[in-house]
Sequence to fold (520 residues):
Amino acid sequence: MDSKTLQILIAMIIYMAAVIAIGILCSRRANKSSEEYFLGGRSLGPWVTAMSAEASDMSGWLLMGLPGVAYWCGLADAFWTALGLAVGTYLNWLIVSRRLRRYSVRANNSITLPDFFSNRFREKKPIIMTVAAAFILIFFTVYAASCFVTCGKLFSSLFGGDYKVMMLIGALFVLVYTLLGGFLAESVSDFMQAIVMIVALSVIVIISTIQAGGLGAVIDNAQNIPGFLEFFGLGNPILNGEGEQIVIEGAPMFAEALPYGILSVCSMMAWGLGYFGMPQVLLRFMAIRKESELKRSRRIAMVWVVISLAVAVFIGIVGRQLFPVEHLTSSSAENIFITLATSSLPAILAGFVMAGILAATISSSDSYLLIAASAFSKNVFQGIIKKKATDKQVMWVSRITLLVIALIAMVIALDEDSVIFKVVSFAWAGFGATFGPLMLFSLFWKRTTQAGAVAGMIGSAGMVFLWKLVISKLGGAFAIYELLPAFIFSAICIVVVSLLTKKPSAEVEEDFEAVKKGEI
Fold:
């Protein structure tokens, strides 16, 4: 290990030690009860709520996946995805946050998403709870796998080790940390990680732009690549038989730009719909200490999101000029942030910037593991299997579940050719379509029934798999992002089945009206 690599490692160890210290400090409080462990006792302030929500949401794909897309094929895909996410973030904080905070308290002080849906409909048999918990386990396992892929790519790129070994080391660190501190530790460390992420992005984009000869030089280079700097065109790398971009005389080869129509724009903008069903974000709405502080949180969150997304996209554009032939596959392109950081900064500073990627990964994977574990331990084990389970038993089951989910995610992450952006997009679609429409209808349509809720979840989840694995292969208009058709299909299922079944009980309607009027 040379001197530069050693300095990078030292900086990252310092960062990881700080994260572990947070877990230790929070562990005593976290282990008081399941509510403290899973929801932090509803004690989050506006800054921690906003920053931890966005950090846990963005994950490693903000620093690797999104810049990788921009580096590989240019502005269009990355820009429209980022715009959809920014709009979705704003609408989620504006429309959902207040009513969910209020409704989750009214609905028997719900502390998990399956809890909320089940209590919202006052179901006597935990059908909604079981279905919701099952889908959380499925999609969060995939999500956790994407985070472990990020760890593997980061460590193998930096230290030259075997991808699988590096991935397992990163996964074990995340697992130990999550087992230790619970939701409060996760949220507090996510606040710190959100700061690290935005600073890392900003530092790299400024220094890299200067090294590239300024903003004008970056734009000129991008404009020379067909479709690379267009909102309605897409760069088209020419690949050889092994899937690598062809290089001639030191220059990467691009074919004529691909068309990028309104359907493609809608497909990428549809990413924003996912926010209405993201458990890791929705739980922050439920955990804030006062409903009145959500407005401030929304403003903080929006500033962070807009800056982070814009800078992440531009990093890919700058990287294409500085290192045009460094990454010749779409999977390798996701390392452009690492390449820029290690080449443009002193080793010790590069190490702290690399901690930004680790920050993003930890902030997401600990959320995913914790929420998935809570879905099983609280909603399946205590809700169905052993209703009289003690808090201590619930906590033990939660930790065992964490281990099992992490092991499955590690197996999925063993493929080092995985493209983070694609793995995340599938899980995002799963959550967005399965829970997004149901959340909106639960909060704003009194006529929604238990049967409608179940139909919406099962129908949308099935549509996500069907569209992704079968229908999208037909190409053309059918190649749109699976979240959009699945979201629409879920909404239709909820409305149709709710209207065809008996209207909710008087108690359910009373709860709805009380929340609507601002009562708890």
Notes: The mean pLDDT is 87. The two ends are 60 Å apart (CA to CA).
